[in-house]
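question for whoever is on the cluster today: can someone run the full assembly for these? two chains, 744 residues total. i dont have access anymore since they changed the login thing
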Amino acid sequence: MSGGVDSSVSAARLVQAGHEVVGATLKLWGGSSDSGCCSVGDVDDARRVAQQIGIPHYVFDMTEAFDASVVGPYVAAHAAARTPNPCVECNRHIKFDRLLERADRLGFDMLATGHHARVVHPPGEPHQLRRGADPDKDQSYVLSMLGQDQLARVSLPIGDLRKSAVRALATELGLRTAAKPDSQDVCFIRSDEGRQRFLGSRLAFHTAMVVDSATGAEMGEVDALELVTVGQRRGFAHGEDGTRRYVSAVDRATRTVYVGRAEDVATRAVRFDPGSVTWTDTALGTDAPVIAQTSAHGRPSACTYGVDSDGPGVRFDAPIRPVAPGQTIALYDRADPDRVIGAAIAA
Amino acid sequence: MTSTEASPVAYLDHAATSPVRPEVVEAMAPFAAERFGNASGSHRMARDARVAVEEARERVAHVLGADPTEIVFTSGGTESDNLAVLGTLADRARSGEVIGAVCSAIEHAAVLEPMRAAACGAAAVLGVGAMTLDEVGVLPDGVIDLDRLAEVLGTHTVLVSVMTANNEVGTIQPMQSVADVVRRYAPVAALHTDAVQAAPYVDLAALTGACDLVSVSAHKLGGPKGVGALVVRAPNQLLPLLRGGGQEHERRSGTHDVAGIVGLAAALGVADDARAAEVSRVGALRDRLADELRCAVPSTVETAARSVVLPGHCHLRFAGVEQEELLVLLDRGGVCASAGSACASGAIEPSHVLVAMGVSPDDAGSAIRFSLGHTSTEAEVDQAVDVVVSAVARLRR
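^ ran it for u. tokens below:
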């Protein structure tokens, strides 16, 4: 229970359904924070909701594990000019690993969260992870790394609701979190501090030359290549032809940021980090038609999964904007597009 | 969950707070209702309140072995500690010389934090300038290292703070020996002791005899939360932290919490009358809890020897078990215990006390504090033993 409306309603629905429910809030970040599940105010909200719906509530301190598995790798990835997704790593290492293990040890059958996605348990068939009912809020992307072992023990009680319905239920139940704004951005970075200052106090920034990849023309400098994301447009000047420029690559070794026109930087092939591929159920064979989503709210695109001499990857049917190294790529079933089948990290 | 919440409760967290005694509630009740006067006024309602405060002051002074003028009523242990530390440092800083302060490494945060803040310059607003701070370690048994204390003391030392008994592990500090060392090596120093945790079980008058400043809090004694006292032995002086109407002889301004002060006096009185009997009754319950758990739960370590621990404290470590998980299972079994200190969010923080005692971080993470008190019963001990045995077995499975 993060102290937000989604987990509040999730807990309330489980109680309504007659389950024996215990609320837990994770303390993940020792530093200052004003959003997500790290602030005292949010913990108080979670505790008061728990009290209101009649369940016990505990705070679990997982700051050390969070630092080691999420924050440290987040900083290291930026230092390597990659763009990681810390929410995915938190789900992978903390919520659906450490917390799930704890739930097991304490004798709980299921772990429920307030994610907007659906877990379906068809009798005699593999457990399915599916997109949430609200297309604008769908969070199946950040859960796409879950496997059968985890899905068997996971419940997502609001996945079948639109956000407006979640808020309506919260209002109906009189929950204090009914009108609380959605959390934004990365929970361990204060909104008044921002990513740049957070990273700036933890790693050294390097200037880089901006080069038009088509003409080789130098287009000025950026102050910190560590803050540049492949696919980014904001902050880069238009080219001589007056069209927008997008980042196509960041070369840390030569301190060069390559930019180009949308049509030039578009890509069809995305390689995966070897060993980063996970499957919801069984592994796909090579040349399998799938749908890939390359960012949390990105547009799903048809592609083909395969493994060749360079390792695993996907080839898109039509060119897409370039994918930043370090980003999670969620794979969905071409024949059943709401169904997650796997995940990988872009090389 | 309602079935679990409705199960009988074994309240073994008296070190966090103790249930309010019925006689205390009775004594306080009129001042929460019809006897509402402001003790600083001049009419009949005010006089009534003022008389109640002064009668309470006399009772508190009597139990604490102090003169009534030496009692400063505060909002509780944290304020008493802050007033003792910062008020003394501010007073002594008026000399303009570099001043020295010393405390044990296992002090409550209410002493450690103001000490550290002052040493970092954060008490400049009070006039505290250059100062040194020495935090004296404890031996593995949880008792202050007197040799080390003697080493760091000097003529520049103006304040020494050593708690009477530790709130987490319960170790009783040899205050008379501490006082002897302080008087010998730091002749101008004021000696403060935080007696908040120890108050129900130790001879407070003897403590006041050995120290210059003594902090107590009502709610650890069966009194209400939000009220405490600081004994300031003459001729020690301190500067106030709260300035305003000049109450408490200019040492602590603010309208008197008459009901709370009356409650503190009542609680101290009852605790003092019951002391000898409670030391043996609660001590026997604690011994049984510790003995049965050590017997029934393999690899259970008692953090400190009972000979130096408060009668109500039972601090145990269950090897290989995570305290956060054990506390959940205890709570589900109706057993209220704790794992040392909790931060503002309610998460458990690593114990600086166990670190000071040389306990490894992993071992420290397996620690649970059971603390018994005036309402503790044999049945609660039985329930705790049953629940702990099955919970530890589950977590080790």
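summary bc i know u wont read the tokens: Chain A has three domains: 5-114+157-173, 205-265, 269-345. Chain A touches chain B at residues 20-22, 25, 27, 39-40, 43, 47, 54-56, 58-61, 63, 102, 105-107 (CB under 8 Å).
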